Amino acid sequence: MPESLRYIQAVNHALAWALDSRDDTVYFGEDVALPGGPFGATKGLHKRFGDRRIFDTPISETGFLGMALGSAMTGLRPIAEIMYADFAFVAMGQIVNQIANTRYSSGGRWTAPLVIRMQQGYSPGACAQHSQSIEAYFAHTPGLRVALPSNPDDAYQMLRTAVTSDDPVVVAEARMLYPTRGEVRLDAPVEPVGGAKVVRAGTDATVVAWSRLVPVAVDAANQLAAEGIEVEVVDLRWLNPLDFDTVAASVGRTGRLVVAHEANLTGGFGAEIAARAADECFADLRAPVRRVAAPDVPMPAAPSLQAAVVPEAAAVVDAVRRTLA
Amino acid sequence: MGLADDYRSMARIRRFEERLMTLKDEGEVPGSIHLCNGQEAIPVGAARVLRDGDYVSATYRGHGWALARGVDMAALFAEIMGRDSALCGGRAASPYLSDVSRRFVGENSIVGAGVPVATGAALTARHQGTGDVSVASIGDGAMNQGNVHEALNLAAVLDLPLILVVENNVYSEMSRIDDMVRVKQLAERAAGYGIPGTVVDGNDPDAVAAAMATAVERARAGAGPSIVEAMTERLVGHYSGDAQHYRPAGEIADARTREPLVRIRNAADAALTATLDAIDAEVAAEVEAAVAAARATAVPDPATVKEHLYA
Ligand SMILES: Cc1ncc(C[n+]2csc(CCOP(=O)(O)OP(=O)(O)O)c2C)c(N)n1
Fold it and tell me: CA–CA separation, B284 vs B303, rounded Å?
């Protein structure tokens, strides 16, 4: 039976499911045990699973991500929580040099079945060190899987997929979506890794988005529908493995492509989608690919300044209009 | 364990690496290699008190730890020579190799970064309740890396069975440790984590084994990590091409009078000397056979270059 849950509650259910289904699953991070997590993602789990399965770490992202790797190599299925995605940068050495290399550099003899769970994106008043959308850094690194759920059901399904994967997965949730509510299929079978989804059908243009920009793109599509422009919205969901087939099929139907993400423009994952489209969809494209992204500035904290940076529906509407012009 | 056994274990490491150096000169080893000549007593002493279930990790100077843990010598040569070895299939080479079958969690060519990973192996041991321990070896310079500090504090608060072996060979690449730290001994830092720290003669396998026995016993009992600082000297350069201009004249010659193999030789009577000579001959033959086996190992097929990236 689907249940109506908020995004953050869906995360909590997925974690409970993971800890319940295997004794070798352990969960650790800062304030995750008794406190239940800074956003409530682990509420009630410590009481249910105890110190051996879920425990607090000192503030040492490098230390505990390395610990996640070593324990994954030797038989556990750890999930490590990075409180804000921005803090992953202090531990990037463990992620890029250690975790991502383990399977390949050992010729497949060691594996690293671990999940790094984090949340990202701007929120009003949050400063430049608590607002970044950092998915492109991980997507650039061979050996990592990268998941960005955009709704409560995906928050539940994709996290379950991540914890059952035998590869290291970075799950970057969207903090601004935590309060959103939706139907969650608690009993659904675990999905395979990967797979984009057409979340709104259309004929005139394709908008590829992920994370917080998916509901923004749907909002833009609904506005354009009032003018008779039908936009197809593709939720990319996973940046690795990349399901470009779904993107290409959609571009085949619409002939026009806009890529929208919250991360800043230069070197963002939108550039990858645009380049792939130029390479593989050239014959289908009737207009240049457009990108919607934050400008290349650090995130300011004042809401008035944030509004000048963060892409919203109007920017997507504008980009679609320009591809149709 | 007698002197002859220690001698054999240490001689295997020494001859292995000396042979590696000649292979390098002959163009059979790609890249640079970092030898542990002079430091053999540390892995050999430690290995004496470890059991099969224990995990070991090392730095890029880790051939000695691999051999002391029973990693196959021919496979080790093969991996370092860029062959399709049973260790890592030619993807790791000298500075990053590992052996899953010997629980040799591996070397690490990022200074200090292996210590958090070793802490993870200790977490597994605690979770599984096996009483196994995780030993991580690093150099003196690595003690200044944030990875090491975070891992030690983490292991201390979680009471994890981690033993950090600091091989203090005085130098980090070309810099002396006393120019880099204000403490006299690195083991003093243990106090900062609330764990035991000891300093031992790293050229004496008995001293290393005794210190390790105490640390390992504590770890197996669930009482948490320790630091063992083993004082030693590097008889060779930091890496295969290092001319060592930065070392004072006579330093290496002096070190050669007290290195662990010479020490046993100097203390040996006629009977033991004959035994050691026989061991040298056996080890030389073993090393040659391993080189031949490695040479017979295929080079990795370029068509497999994308394999082993994902499950
Ligand atoms: C993070 C990092 N910084 C710098 C280096 C370059 N480097 C390689 S070995 C080394 C010296 C390490 O010294 P020490 O820890 O004392 O080990 P030893 O070489 O003496 O065994 C340095 C600086 C590196 N590999 N990784």
Answer: 36
Considering the four listed CATH numbers 3.40.50.920, 3.90.1150.10, 3.40.50.720, 3.40.50.300, the one that applies to the domain covering A197-324 is 3.40.50.920
CATH number for the domain whose boundaries are B3-297: 3.40.50.970
Return the SS3 of B57.
strand
* pLDDT of the residue at A1: 75
Task: Choose among A71, A143, A166: nearest Cβ to B120.
Answer: A71
What is d(CA A14, CA A103) in angstroms, rounded to the nearest whole number? Answer: 26
Tokens of B32: 């640079």
Can you count the helices (H) and strands (E) in chain B? Answer: 11, 8
β-bridge partners, B197: B227
**Interval A22-46: pLDDT, tens:** 999 999 999 999 999 999 999 999 9
Q: Do A69 and B91 touch (CB under 8 A)?
A: no
Q: B36: burial class by Cβ within 10 Å (0-12, 13-18, 19+)?
A: buried
Residue range A3-184 in CATH 3.40.50.10490: no
Domain spans, chain A: 3-184, 197-324
Contacts of B166 (CB under 8 A, 6+ apart): B137, B138, B139, B140, B142, B143, B186, B187, B227, B228, B229, B230
CA dist list (Å): B161 to A75, B131, B225? 16, 8, 5
Q: Which residues are B200's β-sheet partners?
A: B230
pLDDT at B203: 98
| Model confidence pLDDT, tens digit, residues B114-152 | 999 999 999 999 999 999 999 999 999 999 999 999 999
Evaluate: CB of B146 within 6 angstroms of ligand 1: no
How far does CA B99 lie from the centroid of its chain?
14
Mean pLDDT of chain B: 97
Q: Averaged over A71-99, what is the pLDDT?
A: 98
Q: Is B296 in the pocket of ligand 1 (CB under 6 A)?
A: no
Q: Ligand 1 atom closest to Cα of B61?
A: 21
Instruction: Give how far A264 is from chain B: nearest CA, Å.
Output: 29
Domain spans of chain B? 3-297
The residue whose CA has the least distance to atom 25 of ligand 1 is B110
Whole-model pTM: value is: 0.96
Q: Which residue of A has its CA nearest to B119?
A: A67
Whether A130 is catalytic:
yes
Ligand 1 site, residue B263, Cβ cutoff 6 A: no
ipTM of predicted complex: 0.94
Q: Do B151 and A63 touch (CB under 8 A)?
A: yes
Contact B175, B143 (CB under 8 A): no
